[in-house]
Amino acid sequence: MCSKGDATQFSPEDKASDPTEKKPPTLIKKVSRFVLSELGVSAEELADFRSFSQLLHSPRDPSGLAVTRMLYGALMCVDVMHERGLSTADDRWGDPEECRFPLFASLRPLPLEWMVALYALMLAGAVGISLGWHFKKSCLCFLLPYWYVFLLDKSRWNNHSYLFGLLGTHMLVSSANRGWCLDARNNPEYRNKDVPLWNYFLLRGQIFLVYFIAGLKKTNMDWLSGYSMEKLGYHWVFDGFRLLLTDDQITLLVVHVGGFLLDLTVGFFMVLRHTRPLGFLMAGLFNLMNSRMFSIGMFPYVMIAVMPIFCSADWPKKFVICLRQLIRRPLKFDWTPGRSDDCVYEDQEKPKPSYYQNLTTLALCGYFLVQAALPYSHPLTPGLNGWTEGLYGYSWDMMVHNWRHVHTTITVVDRDTGERYHLDPEAFTRSHRWSHHAGMVKQLATCLEQRMRRRHGMRHVEIYVDVWVSLNRRFTQRMYDPTVDVVRAPWSPFSDVWWALPLQTHLTPWREGLVQTEEKIMDSSDDADVLFVADFPGFHLLNFISDGQSNTSLKVMRGSVELQFQAGHALLLEEGQQAQIPSDEYHQVSPLKHSPACYMYVYNVNRTIKGTDNFLQAATCPVTSLQQLQEVNLQTSDVTCRGFCWSQLKRDIIKKIEIFTRSTTLIRKAFISIVTQKPMVVKREKTESSLF
């Protein structure tokens, strides 16, 4: 036994090696603790699946979810009449001959009166969701027609339409009618009862993914280089930035770089407690600016309406209590929510989630796994890919791709007679987005074959498609092989489309020079214009220069081309050489050698012939089609206010009133049609034959 004087003396090194001594927390642990405290959860609640499931089923106040439900339902009422198309249902669904692009070939639109009836059912469902009246039935009345209309036409897909459907589905599976709803008047079960946390987690996670994945998609160099939203910095909503930046700098730094950083970070800011006010400010301003710049329906307002879902669940009650205290009328009743069988409470005898609740947790994890993977699932469906990945709608690549349609030719060949016809691209569809994806091109060709057989008696039909597009300020080029009969061409969502031509990405570095050249030419004269073209060897461009395009020249920028004139003579042009193009006649440009050729048209436009028959007839060539687009832009710019103006607000209000009035009129006509069993009559102007 040691004496007191013989006690062992520990050196600093010995103390550091003492296994019982607690080590100071590392930086990672400090950050983890901070994040968990900001999220309002503990590490123990995330330690294992059972603890996580118990956390997701812990009780929360229903009022925050109820307010989101009311706002979502109210905004969907407007959306049904406006962007979903109730007010224009007769124009959209009234022509049985129109070609459509359903996700599944078996999907067909109903007769017009029944389509309007579906819209009316959808509208009633949205009203029921907002009021919390027969909530689950109202959700079904809204969702079933919504997804049906959504799946009927892929060419109308966009990201926010997909999001609206997802949010409606979230409402269906949630307990959003446990507070502030009409159902509570007759059923105490729905009167101010707790809801499980996963109801909030589902909505918060969905909105977070929308922003975050949109930010990841903007890592695309087209976006970061400022080519996606060209000239957007000229809009009046950016007037405050003009104190420090030019319009072009606003387009690059604020719109593109700022938009990328906002999408990537704003979800985190709204989730974390201390940064939430900043996140709300960023998201609110961002969506309000979008509502002024783009025609995207209710999307900005829905994104603003769901922001409070990130706050504490009882924020509406706290807000009402504060208001009543300000007016010195305190609440005289207990507003504490009642207990619910859907929640797990700490004071239960066995506070653990049930088998059903664990399944709910698994379903939530699976749902978010699918939502995170779906925007990157495009390698599994190569047939849906083109110059961009996948169909526009579920990828969250919002505003990344700026398409400029220059020219589309559809050629119909009667194999029995050998006769060839050019078909107006808008004869059987008014959408241009079908040209973005080979699958929709195949659907259109199949539809056109059926129309040619029935209308013109052609038994054996061939369809050839030639689409010229510029993507994000690149050269204008073909999207599909114009020598392939699309009717008989193979297509599958799970196979590569060999007859779709690739985007010439090796020419992307030319873009900066193209922009500078275009600006230089446009600045030289108010009537000057330019079009840049890249084409593959083995093909040719047959172009027509109208009287409206004077002093037209063609200059070769890369490779070599053969230029053939209508008179019969031809020229061989090498890189850097140019030639004058006579107007009011056709010419043909054919790339030579084994690599794509690049060339540009430079011409002057006679503005006085805008709108004449000659101008419209000449719109079958790329040069004129581009100029036609620019003429439309000139017309719209004359009536646009520089800054906020009451006249624009007045027009918006009048438009909304007209949409409501027309919607109610169509519902009334559809009801009369169904009762009398007489089809709705759609008045259409008679048009000339679309074949020429």
TrEMBL record:
Residues 57-315 form the HTTM-like domain. Residues 1-11 have a biased composition (Polar residues). It is found in: Endomembrane system. Residues 12-24 have a biased composition (Basic and acidic residues). It comes from the Eukaryota. InterPro entries: HTTM-like (IPR011020), HTTM_dom (IPR053934), VKG_COase (IPR007782), VKGC_lumenal_dom (IPR053935). Pfam families: HTTM, VKGC_lumenal_dom. Its main location: membrane. Keywords: Disulfide bond, Lyase, Membrane, Transmembrane, Transmembrane helix. GO terms for cellular component: endomembrane system. The chain crosses the membrane at residues 116-135, 197-214, 250-272, 293-315. Residues 1-24 are annotated as: Disordered. This is HTTM-like domain-containing protein. It comes from Oedothorax gibbosus. The lineage of its organism: Eukaryota, Metazoa, Ecdysozoa, Arthropoda, Chelicerata.
